[in-house]
């Protein structure tokens, strides 16, 4: 059942809810297995970490009274009070700077950006202060801060609300950059991020918030934590490796289903961590399959796929049986009209075609301008 | 219908204790400073002057790559520091080494940072004058302007949560008040009700931009009220006025848990830094005037000597002592080994990630293979 969640967001303001259709992704649930939406997964992770450590704070626009622009922080203000769940004035530079200062002095802030597009208004604090302070102060100033919020394309929100920042932040030493896909990722990675002593950029996806995924009892435990820097093989295969992160993992899995029917066994890797990048897992997989397709929503130039391609060429060149294929968003600011928007982001078909190209090279390669 | 005028007509008055000749102004009410504190303040101001003169020259001689003086702002530096307690957390801009000096940073430690040697607390990672010391509660200097301001509000929030008997003090120049971060910081500090003192060293110049081109308001002090912040304008070249206003600000900030804005009027006697030649954009006699007639060090000296706490002999002895100490510290710093290559890789994260571990190992192997190509002055 397809899901559309449409929002009209004024920059920096309160989203006005448009047409709202309940989003659900039905898996055939494993016997007696529980399901959890990504939103609830994030909420529970925040709740548990705030409960366990009184120095953890949440701050951002609308996180308190409004229960979160996307309801991720629902119930937290009531539970922890206004000193720990802080509704900030509209100033990304202000609250990010303030949070960095608080982190300098021993608090563990979680800063929410309404979308990562607005993080650009605070990017000096993220890069020049948070990322570099530990190094520049030679270990005297540590910054245990988490920057989180929706990243990448949503639906019908236009150019200034749709950019993917994975490549930008992941190029910066001193930062860790995570991108969860399902609920287990969301819980485990957010908990790991909050506990981590280094600054972490946590890239969520708005369209995944309402999606439900099966979740194990282990993942529901309050001590659950996923390791930072390890990718997950979501589906094993032997003919072609498809690497993706965030929403594109879902698309890659769908593509793998389609490819399986045509006799191509695709191995799907969910990166989970963009920096540090799990080069070992990717290279091991490519050495097995000899073919690679990378998928991302972001702009093509200097993207995540470019880095993965370079890593493969540097370490596993002799194992490649075909050139690496990169599937990315179009090299244009995101258009608004639904038909144009569809053309500007990767679709499942694009992944299937790319995988086939690496396997047969029977379809002419698309020319990149 | 009444538009509030863009200017109130009258300029906000400036708090002063000593007149230009170092005599207390009749009728001025101020907290007395005892001999010990006064002499320590004064000698700190002299030390800062000498440190600036000699280290500036050291850059001119090519021995360090960069330097930035605080000439003309010695009173703000030392008097504000003297008014604080060691628990108060300082987030500097970059023209406040006197605060670190007051807190006990030695001439050797300053020199080590400027030379980026093995003993530098910054492990050779930063340009000269980017001092920082956790044990002195002085955050490492960060180059981008005014970023420390909202961060100071954050540190103050942390102190407020801990209910500590301490405040945060953060500094900026007149130019820094134009940054977006200044606005955000003051607004935040007021809304969050945190104990932070914003001290603006209005020294007339932001590199080559004079204050007439920096803002159209009556200086910086008037902006405080716009954010709901109690503010004061102070004669930044009057050490006692600075001392008094910071003392009171500190008490207010902590007892009432609110931010305070202090605009300290002063003059940047030196060039912006060693990368600047200010004679290109301002009159030489303007500089001379502030260097001599309005010198904060000699003004305070007159008061201290007037109380019988300092003599001309003390002056020449002290100056030559400090000069000697500093020259020795510089010699030592210059001769000391540079930081080892391992420091290239540490502190990027709390723990070295696998890619850096691998790169360090790979570098080590390359060095072993080609020892003749490795620079002899970089320890391993």
From TrEMBL, chain A:
Cofactor entry: thiamine diphosphate
CDD domains: TPP_PYR_E1-PDHc-beta_like
Superkingdom as given in the UniProt entry: Eukaryota
Localisation: Mitochondrion matrix
InterPro entries noted in UniProt: PDHB_mito-type (IPR027110), THDP-binding (IPR029061), Transketo_C/PFOR_II (IPR009014), Transketolase-like_Pyr-bd (IPR005475), Transketolase_C (IPR033248)
Protein EC: 1.2.4.1
Every Transketolase-like pyrimidine-binding domain range: 36-211
Gene Ontology process terms (BP): pyruvate decarboxylation to acetyl-CoA
Gene3D superfamilies in UniProt: 3.40.50.920, 3.40.50.970
Catalytic activity field: N(6)-[(R)-lipoyl]-L-lysyl-[protein] + pyruvate + H(+) = N(6)-[(R)-S(8)-acetyldihydrolipoyl]-L-lysyl-[protein] + CO2
GO MF assignments: metal ion binding; pyruvate dehydrogenase (acetyl-transferring) activity
Coiled coil residues, start to end: none
Pfam families: Transket_pyr, Transketolase_C
GO CC field: mitochondrial matrix
Entry keywords, A to Z: Metal-binding, Mitochondrion, Oxidoreductase, Potassium, Pyruvate, Thiamine pyrophosphate, Transit peptide
Principal location class: mitochondrion
NCBIfam families recorded: PRK09212.1, PRK11892.1
Role this protein plays: The pyruvate dehydrogenase complex catalyzes the overall conversion of pyruvate to acetyl-CoA and CO2. The pyruvate dehydrogenase complex catalyzes the overall conversion of pyruvate to acetyl-CoA and CO(2). It contains multiple copies of three enzymatic components: pyruvate dehydrogenase (E1), dihydrolipoamide acetyltransferase (E2) and lipoamide dehydrogenase (E3).
Subunit structure: Tetramer of 2 alpha and 2 beta subunits.
Protein name: Pyruvate dehydrogenase E1 component subunit beta
Species of provenance: Coffea canephora
Automatic annotation (TrEMBL), chain B:
Stretches with biased composition (Basic and acidic residues): 358-372
EC number(s) on file: 1.2.4.4
Cofactor(s) recorded in Swiss-Prot or TrEMBL: thiamine diphosphate
GO biological process: branched-chain amino acid catabolic process
Chain positions covered by the region annotation Disordered: 358-380
Cellular localization per UniProt: Mitochondrion matrix
Domain Dehydrogenase E1 component: start-end pairs: 45-340
A GO cellular component annotation in the UniProt record: mitochondrial matrix
Primary localization class, coarse: mitochondrion
One Pfam family recorded for the sequence: E1_dh
Subunit record text: Heterotetramer of alpha and beta chains.
Protein family: Belongs to the BCKDHA family.
Protein name: 3-methyl-2-oxobutanoate dehydrogenase (2-methylpropanoyl-transferring)
Organism: Coffea arabica (Arabian coffee)
Lineage of producing organism: Eukaryota, Viridiplantae, Streptophyta, Embryophyta, Tracheophyta
């Amino acid at each position: 059942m397809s899901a559309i969640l449409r929002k009209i967001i004024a920059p920096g303001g309160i989203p006005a809810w448009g047409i709202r259709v309940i989003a659900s992704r039905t898996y055939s649930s494993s016997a007696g297995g529980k399901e959890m939406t990504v939103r609830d997964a994030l909420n529970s992770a925040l709740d548990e970490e705030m409960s366990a450590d009184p120095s953890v704070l949440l701050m951002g626009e609308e996180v308190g009274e409004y229960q979160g622009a996307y309801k991720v922080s629902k119930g937290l203000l009531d539970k922890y009070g206004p000193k720990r769940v802080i509704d900030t004035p509209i100033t990304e530079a202000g609250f990010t700077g303030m949070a960095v200062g608080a982190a300098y002095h021993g608090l563990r802030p979680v800063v929410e950006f309404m979308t990562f597009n607005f993080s650009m208004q605070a990017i000096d604090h993220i890069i020049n202060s948070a990322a570099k302070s530990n190094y520049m102060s030679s270990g005297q100033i540590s910054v245990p801060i988490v920057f989180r919020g929706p990243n990448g394309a949503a639906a019908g929100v236009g150019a200034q609300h749709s950019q993917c920042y994975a490549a930008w932040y992941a190029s910066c030493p001193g930062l860790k950059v995570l991108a969860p896909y399902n609920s287990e990722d969301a819980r485990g990675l957010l908990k790991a991020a909050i506990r981590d002593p280094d600054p972490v950029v946590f890239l969520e996806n708005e369209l995944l918030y309402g999606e439900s995924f099966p979740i194990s009892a282990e993942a529901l435990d309050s001590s659950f934590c996923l390791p930072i820097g390890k990718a997950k093989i979501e589906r094993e295969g032997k003919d072609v490796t498809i690497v993706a992160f965030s929403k594109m993992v879902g698309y890659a899995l769908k593509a793998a289903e389609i490819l399986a029917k045509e006799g191509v066994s695709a191995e799907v890797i969910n990166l989970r961590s963009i920096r540090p990048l799990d080069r070992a897992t990717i290279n091991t997989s490519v050495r097995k399959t000899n073919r690679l397709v990378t998928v991302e929503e972001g702009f093509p130039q200097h993207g995540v796929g470019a880095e993965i391609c370079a890593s493969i060429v540097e370490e596993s060149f002799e194992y490649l049986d075909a050139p690496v294929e990169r599937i990315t968003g179009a090299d244009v600011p995101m258009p608004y009209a639904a038909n144009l928007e569809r053309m500007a982001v990767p679709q499942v078909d694009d992944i299937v075609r790319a995988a086939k190209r690496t396997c047969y090279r029977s379809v002419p390669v698309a020319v990149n301008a | 219908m009444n538009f509030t005028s863009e200017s109130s007509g009258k300029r906000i008055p400036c708090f002063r204790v000593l007149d230009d000749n170092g005599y207390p102004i009749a009728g001025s009410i101020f907290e007395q400073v005892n001999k010990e504190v006064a002499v320590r303040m004064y000698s700190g101001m002299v030390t800062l002057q000498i440190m600036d003169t000699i280290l500036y020259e050291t850059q001119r001689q090519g021995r360090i790559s960069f330097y930035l003086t605080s000439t003309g702002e010695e009173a703000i530096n030392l008097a504000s520091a003297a008014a604080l307690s060691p628990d108060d957390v300082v987030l500097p801009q970059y023209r406040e080494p006197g605060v670190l000096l007051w807190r006990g940073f030695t001439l050797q430690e300053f020199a080590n940072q400027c030379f980026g040697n093995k003993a530098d607390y910054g492990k050779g990672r930063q340009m000269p004058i980017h001092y920082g010391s956790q044990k002195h509660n002085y955050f490492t200097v960060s180059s981008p302007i005014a970023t420390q301001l909202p961060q100071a509000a954050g540190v103050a929030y942390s102190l407020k949560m801990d209910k500590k008997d301490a405040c945060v003090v953060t500094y900026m120049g007149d130019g820094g008040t134009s940054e977006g971060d200044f606005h955000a910081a003051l607004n935040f500090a007021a809304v969050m009700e945190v104990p932070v003192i914003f001290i603006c060293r209005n020294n007339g110049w932001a590199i080559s931009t004079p204050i007439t081109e920096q803002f159209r308001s009556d200086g910086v002090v008037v902006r405080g009220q716009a954010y709901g912040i109690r503010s004061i304008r102070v004669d930044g070249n009057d050490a006692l006025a600075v001392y008094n206003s910071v003392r009171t600000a500190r008490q207010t900030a902590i007892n009432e848990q609110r931010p305070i804005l202090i605009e300290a009027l002063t003059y940047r006697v030196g060039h912006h830094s060693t990368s600047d030649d200010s004679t290109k954009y301002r009159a030489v006699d303007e500089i001379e005037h502030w260097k001599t007639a309005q010198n904060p060090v000699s003004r305070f000296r007159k008061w201290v000597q007037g109380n019988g706490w300092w003599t001309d002999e003390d002056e020449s002895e002290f100056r030559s002592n400090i000069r000697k100490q500093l020259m020795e510290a510089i010699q030592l710093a210059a001769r000391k080994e540079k930081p080892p290559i391992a420091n290239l890789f540490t502190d990027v994260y709390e723990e070295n990630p696998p890619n850096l571990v691998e790169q360090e190992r790979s570098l080590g192997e390359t060095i072993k293979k080609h020892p003749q190509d490795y620079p002899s002055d970089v320890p391993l």
